[in-house]
Write a structure and sequence with these properties.
single chain, 336 residues, alpha/beta, Rossmann fold, 2 domains, seven-stranded parallel β-sheet, five-stranded parallel β-sheet, 17 strands, elongated, binds flavin-adenine dinucleotide
Length: 336
């Protein structure tokens, strides 16, 4: 289904968790607001789920002009084929010019399915979006070559132009409680027969302290930490810094850390104020997950490790010698 109507509507595919609109949706509404203003169009968002109307209303304060919902018990849990079929129908009704999703596990799964169904292209994992003032095409900027370069993609005239956006790459608008409205319920049939899988159980990962994706400081550990016992040193430092611990695949492979904390091209991506890499070589597959950190510092005993060309500050040495003194200084500064 190709959209031939140019409605100038920017449509954000919403995500909800624990009774709230998830953080990336605030960012998408922030960038969507700019795009809608540049196009002279409307900023809309659509949520799928069960009993979601009250939660969906939060999107007005975050910048949406209109909020839509498909509310059905069969949509309680994310299911790829079901969600894709419903959003395809929603796009047929609303005919957006631009369709935005978060580069989250759900968005990364849904976006290619939708782009095929909508006969559109997809710019994935974008860190910047704008509108070409002459052609009104969506211009998407996305990291390539493991984050070593940025490519600018002209999404052309096929509508809707589609992009997934990397979490923490956009500024959300300050919430405006004066902006309110009614959620429009869409009468779209969610056909459970299209689902090829079903959720049989859900397990919540236990997270001590701050979530990795939300942390302003991330202490990253690599294979150079040497053991699961040594890993506790990183956890103690992260706790005192009010941050979280991330890991390389090397560290996870060695069993020092659970894979839910792995950062990189095939795992989580973060963009904290500070990324402190300890015992990490700096392989491009890992750096892709942290390259949008504001500052990167490292400790590595090998002066020729690639991490030194990525870091702003680096110490050549064994972490066993460097980290305890650093941690002591952190405590001293925090207590003073
Ligand atoms: C398709 C593909 C996808 C991948 N995806 C990911 C991904 O998403 N995330 C990811 O992390 N990796 C990923 N990898 C793996 C990646 O290429 C690297 O192998 C991995 O990141 C290396 O982890 P590391 O730096 O901990 O280990 P190593 O490369 O073994 O480096 C350990 C470092 O610790 C230093 N060191 C050792 N002892 C000490 C000490 N006592 N004090 C200080 N420094 C010390 C060493 O000098 C060395 O530089 C992927 C690979 C492939 C092929």
């Amino acid at each position: 289904m190709e959209n031939t109507k140019n409605t100038k509507r920017i449509l954000v595919v919403g995500e909800l968790a624990d009774g709230n609109v998830v953080g990336i949706i605030g960012e998408l509404l922030g960038v969507g607001r700019r795009l809608a203003d540049a196009l002279g169009g409307e900023l809309s968002t659509v949520f799928l789920g069960s009993s979601i109307i009250e939660t969906a209303k939060q999107a007005f304060a975050q910048g949406a002009d209109s909020v839509y919902a498909v509310d059905d018990t069969v949509l309680e849990d994310y299911q790829p084929e079901l969600y894709a079929s419903v959003i395809e129908k929603v796009c047929k009704d609303l005919a957006p010019s631009v369709l935005l999703l978060g580069a989250t596990p759900i968005g990364r799964d849904l976006a290619p399915r939708l782009s095929w169904r909508l006969k559109s292209g997809l710019a994935s994992d974008c860190v910047e979006l704008s509108i070409d003032p002459e052609t009104s095409a969506l211009i998407a900027t996305r990291p390539v070559y493991g984050g070593k370069a940025l490519a600018e993609v002209d999404c052309g005239t096929t509508l809707p132009a589609m992009a997934t956006v990397r979490p923490k790459s956009q500024a959300a608008l300050p919430p405006d409680p004066a902006r309110t409205g009614d959620v429009v319920l869409l009468n779209v049939y969610a056909d459970p027969a299209v689902a090829k899988t079903r959720v049989v159980s859900k397990t919540t990962a236990e997270v001590k302290g701050i979530r990795l994706e939300d942390a302003r400081i991330v202490v990253g550990g690599g294979r150079g930490m040497g053991s699961a016992e040594n890993w506790k040193v990183l956890e103690a430092l992260a706790e005192d810094l009010g941050g979280a611990v991330g890991a390389t695949r090397g560290a996870c492979d060695e069993g020092y850390c659970d894979t839910v904390f792995q950062l990189g091209i095939s795992s989580k991506r973060v963009a904290p104020e500070l990324y402190l890499a300890v015992g990490i070589s700096g392989a491009s597959q890992h750096m892709t997950g942290v390259s949008f950190s504001k500052h990167i510092a490292c400790i590595n005993r090998d002066a020729s490790a690639p991490i030194f060309s990525e870091a702003e500050f680096g110490v050549v040495g064994n972490w066993e010698d460097v980290l305890p003194a650093f941690h002591r200084k952190v405590k001293e500064l925090l207590s003073g």
